[in-house]
Task: structure prediction
Amino acid sequence: FFFNDTATTEIYTEQIVGSVRCVQETGIKESDDYKVLEYQTISDYAKTHAPAPSKQTDRSRLVEDYVEPQYNSVEVAPQMDKVSLKPNFPEHEIFSMIGDLKLSTQPKELTDPKSEYQVMLVKHFYEPCFVLEFKVKNTLDNIILKDVTANLQLGSEDLRITHIFSANEIKYNATESFFIIVARNPDQRVITGSGGCFLKFIVCEVNPGTTEEITSYDDEYQIEDVEILVSDYMVPQGLPNLTFTNTFDHIQGEEIAQTYQLSYKTVELAVKGLIKHFGMAVCDSSDEINVNNKFHSLYLSGSYLRLEHVMIICMVGIDANLGCVVKIRVKSKDGVLSTCLLYTSPSPRDS
Result:
């Protein structure tokens, strides 16, 4: 539906963005201290390990197993009743067709707590898609908001908005939710994206005493960017102390690895950034750094959407010429999942 037949190498090299650069083999002077790191280009790795592109007929589908043909374009439908602490979706058949809820993120503020419209975002993940729930509070006593929704861009061709369910009405001091369903490319596992977001609504000015409408007009309100992160897909899964390496060696699946040059100034900052980026459990107290070691190994364990156990080893070092060098080793039963995680790398802003 929106995927193009693109060379595998191009797909993965385009995912390494910002300050992240793959260490090139030709620019490395190996020594005994650093020979533990294996340097190779992204393109070489992608050609060897990445899954082959699907046929055009396969890549054009939009999770057709749960979206009916008449929903090819974005629908805007009214929201029903108030939401509770757990998802209380509108009464629409699409919500019964997307399967079981895998996980929900913690609410994130997208506005200042003192703003006139306060917005919180919760991301509900399902196997074929995720649902963005925007909780909006109206703090203006002479204003009623109607048909509240959003203009959202996620900045990824692997994510597509399929349905929007607006909030009918938000009165003074009330909180209501609207929902946006986003389908993921079924050929991928972990898809990230970010983009600007504007609330869109009708402002109804009312008489505070009688709530009689005085006037109404269309308006919009900019909120913080919406981000879909690697950590959103992961649930920390701890292991008994001092069992990580043995478990890593025996877990089923092929280990894949890649080395990156990142713009962190210290090992400590890199470790914090990697933990936040992957959103997994730290094992064997590996977040404690011995400054006397030239390399530090960080052990991470987690579950992808509560479906698949993933283990990651991050070997972090600081080189006088290269700066921060990180070798990331990923292992899980799902090779596509491992590849997707490997080709997402944190930037310093993650820390």
